[in-house]
Structures are given as structure tokens and as C-alpha cells.
Amino acid sequence: MCFSAQKNLSNYMSENNYTQPEPNSRLDDLLEPYFAKYHRQKCYPGLIFQQGKRKMIQINVPADELPTLLQAKPATGNDPDSGKNRPEVEGHSEEVKQYIIKRCTKNKPWILGTLTANIAPDKIEIVELGRGICLVVIRRGVKLDITDGQHRKRAIHELIESSNGELIGDDYFPITLVLEEDFNQCQTDFRDMAQTKQLDKSLLLSFGEFEGGVGITKNLLEKVPMFYGKTEKIKYSPSTKQKLIYTTNYIAKLVSCAFADDPIDELQDYDVETSSEALISCLNQFFLECSQTRYIFETPVEKLTVNEVEKFKEDCILGRSVGIEVLGRLLYCTYDKNNACFENEKVSQIAQLDWSRKSHVWVGNIVLSKNNSTDTYKITASVSAVKSAITAAKTELGWI
Questions:
Q1: Do the beta carbons of residue 146 and residue 70 sit within 8 Å?
Q2: C-alpha to C-alpha distance for 169 and 167, rounded to whole angstroms
């Protein structure tokens, strides 16, 4: 800026009594009159942005105000036009609520995704402060219609009104507010947001917190040669062409069954390092002693061929999810809880079983032949089939 321009600007600021704000000054003094003016309404600071040819606003709402501010309008019966979002999935809100409670009671961080709601523009007042900053004034009695997040809203609502309400009493929840009054467009918005591909269980486990069953599973993937480099950590099923035999979810089931005889137990009270060490030693012993797994166990994945992997998955039930679950349940019978270890002698006995698909131990329970043909078969992982397989194995071992 030239000297004359600087002088003119200085004179203008002086004549108009303009005082430049301090760089670190807060907006409290500016915003307080607005909050005082709208004290009988709900008033939230917001950020305005444009998306999809519409104006949207991001606001943050205290937990205790969320139940009265938001309302879900799920479709009912067989009529999708009876609501703005899908019917509630039974039990999902409870899952969200238990997730929050579990994390809070353990003093662990947690997070819920942003909720999305819509409202007709004339139902609220927007006080624009510039640079996309605004105040959103919502009159008493006006509710925001949920487009996405009804289960999260219900979980928060039930939690706030329960004896555990203080767990989230100081928390805020973000809402993306779409200024939209057209019902059909609201339904379209829900459909568009609902098209996100569901995440595979293996991916969720791979990104799980390093504790309990997840922590033990991650240790096994690194320290059991049978699993190392041979396990799919992202997708739902292992690709034979990529020489993958297992998924993270398979191994997680094995871990839960080995310690708790339950494929979905999260083993939250188990020490990760101690438990991992015990199961790693047990599995390495088993896979080395078992004639059907020894070659795969001892051979690094880069030296295996696709044909060898394919043959193993075809011929041995330990190349299948259900076979790994059966192994876990049998290992549970060898687990000494008092000493936190697996009995080597019994593990050796399990390794001597015939784990091939054609073994009489598995035929008729988890391996179903079609038309009495040994070449055509079906693998089943039903609860009754697994239970029958365990009984057959124990009988073969002379344990019952």
C-alpha cells in the first residue's frame, strides 16, 4: 500500500472512531445481545455451507436438548410414504446405547456420527454474522425431522432419561440441518445417504481397539505362521487367488471360542498379552503337529501356490470358518483358567484328529453329502451342526 493510501485509511478510521479488535478477542460481546434477544427460543451458533444446490447448516446441540428438538418419522407397515426414514431396526438403538455406556464407564473415548435433519426454511430464523457464521433460532414447539440417525437419537434419548444420563450430560451432538420442505426430496435424501456400502466385519475388527478379543486376534495374525500373511483383513471373504485362507473375523471367532466357548464374546476382562501368549503357543503347537496343516503352517505365503491354497481350503475343514470355530471350541476344553494356559497333551490329541473334509468325524454334521456322493457336498455352519461336530470329535477323542 502506498503512503497516500495508508494516510487516507488512517484518517477514515480516526474520523469514524473505528477501533481494530484485538487478534485474540472473543465473540462473546458480539453474540450476547442475540442470545439475550432469543432467550425464549432455542438458539445455536452455526456454520452455513452450500451442498447439492441447497443451503445447509451445521449446529451442535447439548445432549439433554436433543430428545425434544429432534423427531423421527419412520415409515410404518408396508407404506414407505408414511415416513421420512426407514422403520427402526429392532435392537440397533440398544446397541448404540450400550456402546456409549461401556465406553463411558471405562473412561474411554467414544464417538457418534453426525445426525442429519431437515426443516422448512420458514420454520427457523437464521441470523447471518458473515463468513458463513450464523445463529440458528428455533421457535418453541418446532421440531427437526430426522433424515439420518434415528437410532442414534433414540439411544441418546433413552440414555438421557435413564439413571445413566449423567454419563453424557456434558456432551454435544452435531446435526447437519438441511433447509428442505419437500417431502419427496427428504425421502430421496435418506435413500442417497443409505446407499453407503456396509462395512465388512473383518474391517471393523482390524480397526478395533487393541483390547480384549480384538487385541488377542491382532497378536495372533502376526505371530501364528498359519495366519500370518494368509488372512484377509479388509473384505468379507478370503480370495484364493491372493493366497488368502482366513479373514480376521474367522480368527476372532476362534479366539472367543477358545477362551469363552462363545463366538461373539468380546473377552473384555482378559489380559491381552498373557492370553495372546497362551493361545499363540497352543495354536503353533497344534498346526505343527496336525498332518493336514503342517505344510501350510511351515510355508511362507510367498512360497505357496494358488493351487496349494485352493486344495487346502477344499480338502481340510480347517481352511473354512466353521472348521476354525470347531477347533476353538475344542481348545476351550483344554484351557486351564486358573493357570491361563492350554494343556499341551490335550492339544496334541486334538491335532491327531482327521481334519480332512472326508473324515467320518465331520460327515453328517458340518459336512453334508448330497445323494450319498462323497464328491458333492455342502458345508454348513448352523448351530446344531457345530454342536454335533463337537460331540463327534469328543467321542472320537474318548472325552465323552
A1: yes
A2: 6
Q: Say whether 28 sits in a helix, a strand or coil.
A: helix
Contact 297, 223 (CB under 8 A): no
Rg (CA), the chain: 30
Q: Which of 308, 316, 197, 325 is nearest to 252 (CA)?
A: 325
Q: Which residues contact 146 (CB under 8 A, 6 or more apart)?
A: 70, 71, 72, 73, 84, 85, 115, 116, 117, 153
* Each residue's pLDDT expressed in tens, for the chain with a length of 400 residues: 444 444 443 454 455 554 555 555 577 777 788 788 877 888 899 999 998 888 899 999 999 999 889 887 655 555 555 455 556 678 888 989 999 998 898 888 999 989 999 888 889 999 998 889 999 999 888 988 888 888 899 999 999 999 999 999 899 999 999 988 777 777 677 667 766 666 677 666 666 667 889 999 999 999 999 999 999 988 889 999 999 999 999 999 999 999 999 998 889 889 999 999 999 999 999 999 999 999 999 999 999 999 999 999 999 999 999 999 999 999 999 999 889 999 999 999 999 999 999 999 999 999 987 655 556 788 999 999 999 999 999 999 999 8
Quote the CA–CA distance of 59 and 177 in Å, as a whole number: 7
